[in-house]
Fold:
Amino acid sequence: MRTAGGTVPDDLLRAAEAILFAATEPLTPDAIRAHLGLAADLRPVLERLRAEYAGRGIELVERAGRWHFQTAADLAHVLRRDREEPRRLSRAATETLAIIAYHEPVTRAEVEAIRGVQISKGTIDVLMEAGWVRPAGRREVPGRPLLYATTPGFLAHFGLSSRRDLPGMEDLRAAGLLDPIDHAMAAFEVESPAEQD
Structure:
């Protein structure tokens, strides 16, 4: 859409720029027109925007009939950086971490005895890679099993100043973090002695 003088109106240019900037995916000219409530040809608007952004840090590009802003190709190296990918711990890793935190220093066999199942070597490796668990010496018993303990990184990540700040059973129960089976077992243990009388 051009005015009589052959220029694109600033308000139309700004509106198209805002729509393209806010879009989460490339847009067709029809989609841009629908946002603007226009039936006019947007090619002059898009071409002017492309010209205004040429040579800048971001540029307006058309790919397969769809328009979008992208980082200038020659600046990709500036934006490249190592990014930590958040990883969710498996249930086994979460339980293992909790056991180590509450019972440290603890051996693998002790963790398995508390959990009631074997843990794979990879589970402790994941916790060590995260920087939350470390080897803490060896227990002075036959076989001298390796002991595991939490790290200062564990405390920092979970916002604890010391292990004394770990939540207690009542805190966990109040937060709804204990399984229903835990509630049933606790109730059973409380009722059982009374039933025997």
Notes: The chain has two domains: 10-79, 84-161. Strands lie at 58-63, 66-71, 106-107, 133-138, 146-150. The radius of gyration is 30 Å. The chain is about 50% helix and 15% strand.
